[in-house]
C-alpha cells in the first residue's frame, strides 16, 4: 500500500498515459502546459466481485491514503456494482470502483474470469503497485472476443487488467473553458471522437453533473496468439453544479455512468 496519495496518483497517471497517448494532446488543448493546471475530478477502476480481487480489495489502497466511502451504484444491464470514494482534500480526485457480478454471467465467462483471477499471486493484491499492475495472466485474442460478445467490461479487464480505466478533467477548475459544450467543441475541432452513447453530454444541471468523454485510444496488446490493436483507455470531462445548500455536488449519476462505460466499446 502507498502511504502518499500524490505518489499513488502519479503512478496511476504514468501507467494510464502509457496506453492513452491522446491524454497529452487533451492537456495541451485545454490550455495547459502545467500538469497541475488540470485538476482531475475522478478516476475509475474495474475489477471482478471475486473475494481475492473484489472492489473492497482495491478500495483498501485508497483508504490507506485517507479516502472514505461515499456512495454506491447498481448497473443492472451491465451486471455491475460500484462505489465511489472521496478524500478530505476536495482537490484530490474522487475514485469510482466497479466490479462485474460474475455469477450473473454465463458459465463460460465465469470459467474464464476465475482462471484469470487464480493466476494472481495473493500477495500482489496488497502490493504497493497493484492498482497499476496490469494483467497477471495471459489470454488469447479468441478468448478476448468471446468475452467481448457478452461483456465489454470483462473483455477490457482481460486485456488491460488493473489500471485506471479513465482520468477525468474537472471543467470547474479550467481557466479557458466554463461549459461542457465548449470543451466538447474544442475536442471535436481537434479531431477527437466523442462517446455519443446517450448523447454527447450525459446528465444535466438538474442532476448536478454533466459528463462527456472521448472514445478510447487504440493500442496494441500482446495476446497469447498474436498482437492486436484494441480500445485501451479514454479521457472524461465533468462539470459539477451546486446543490441547494451551496456545496458542489460530489456524487455520481448512475444513468450517466452507465453510458460512460461504453467509451471503451470497439468502433
TrEMBL record:
Its EC number is 1.13.11.93. InterPro entries: HGLS. GO terms for molecular function: dioxygenase activity. Its cofactor is Fe(2+). Gene3D superfamilies: 3.10.180.50. It comes from the Bacteria. Pfam families: HGLS (PF07063). Coiled coil: none annotated. Keywords: Dioxygenase, Iron, Oxidoreductase. The keyword ATP-binding does not apply. It is an enzyme of class 1 (oxidoreductase). Belongs to the 2-oxoadipate dioxygenase/decarboxylase family. This is 2-oxoadipate dioxygenase/decarboxylase. It comes from Pseudoalteromonas peptidolytica F12-50-A1.
Amino acid at each position: 500500500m502507498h502511504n502518499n496519495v500524490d505518489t499513488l496518483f502519479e503512478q496511476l497517471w504514468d501507467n494510464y498515459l502509457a496506453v492513452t497517448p491522446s491524454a497529452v494532446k487533451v492537456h495541451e488543448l485545454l490550455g495547459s502546459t502545467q500538469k497541475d493546471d488540470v485538476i482531475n475530478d475522478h478516476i475509475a477502476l474495474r475489477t471482478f466481485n471475486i473475494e481475492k480481487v473484489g472492489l473492497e480489495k482495491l478500495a483498501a489502497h485508497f483508504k490507506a491514503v485517507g479516502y472514505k466511502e461515499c456512495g454506491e451504484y447498481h448497473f443492472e444491464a451491465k451486471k455491475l456494482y460500484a462505489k465511489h470514494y472521496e478524500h478530505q482534500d476536495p482537490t484530490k480526485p474522487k475514485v469510482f470502483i466497479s466490479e462485474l457480478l460474475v455469477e450473473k454471467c454465463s458459465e463460460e465467462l465465469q470459467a474464464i474470469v476465475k482462471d484469470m483471477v487464480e493466476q494472481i499471486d495473493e500477495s500482489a493484491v496488497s502490493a504497493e503497485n497493484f492498482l497499476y499492475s496490469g494483467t497477471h495472466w495471459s489470454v488469447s485474442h479468441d478468448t478476448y472476443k468471446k468475452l467481448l460478445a457478452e461483456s465489454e467490461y470483462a473483455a477490457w479487464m482481460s486485456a488491460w487488467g488493473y489500471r485506471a480505466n479513465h482520468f477525468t478533467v474537472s471543467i470547474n477548475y479550467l481557466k479557458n473553458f466554463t461549459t461542457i459544450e465548449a470543451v466538447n467543441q474544442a475536442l471535436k475541432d481537434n479531431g477527437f471522437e466523442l462517446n455519443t452513447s446517450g448523447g454527447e453530454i450525459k446528465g444535466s444541471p438538474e442532476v448536478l453533473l454533466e459528463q462527456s468523454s472521448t472514445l478510447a485510444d487504440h493500442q496494441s496488446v500482446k495476446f497469447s496468439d498474436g498482437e492486436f490493436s484494441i480500445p485501451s483507455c479514454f479521457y472524461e470531462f465533468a462539470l459539477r453544479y451546486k446543490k441547494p445548500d451551496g456545496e458542489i455536488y460530489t456524487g455520481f449519476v448512475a444513468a450517466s455512468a452507465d453510458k460512460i462505460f461504453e467509451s471503451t466499446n470497439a468502433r
